[in-house]
Write a structure and sequence with these properties.
alpha+beta; two-stranded antiparallel sheet; 25% helix; globular
Amino acid sequence: MTTATPTLTVADITVTTDSMGRPYVIVPDDVARLLRTASLAGIDPEARGIHFESTPHPADSWVATTVRTVFNAVLASPVADEDHHAHGLWQYRKWDGGTFYGWIIGESAWNADTRWWRDHRQHTDLISRGATIASKDRGRLAGTCTFVS
């Protein structure tokens, strides 16, 4: 049995910040789970340390298309108006590639009232840390999507 890959639209996304002004993108849980899986692709589960980069996902893949939708939602939100340089997306506006330095998380992992995680340890399958779309000057990598864990 094959399940359909969910289509994410800007209307499905909530862009917000926590009490310290850090950006969060809230997406449906089924999308968040798939992005989390994609964010770990190619990373050794036994690896220790920080700043591991996932396997590049092709420009025409569901992952890259979904991340572009996330970028467009952030850029259309008041969060981007506050300081678009701080969130790494000014490059996306100009060169079709850039990095979102925030979190992409599932709806059930976010408490909108407190603007904080519901229970981080219980929802790790719904949390991805940022994403990058390679800019058009990257040759064959242009448009590919990676995550840094």
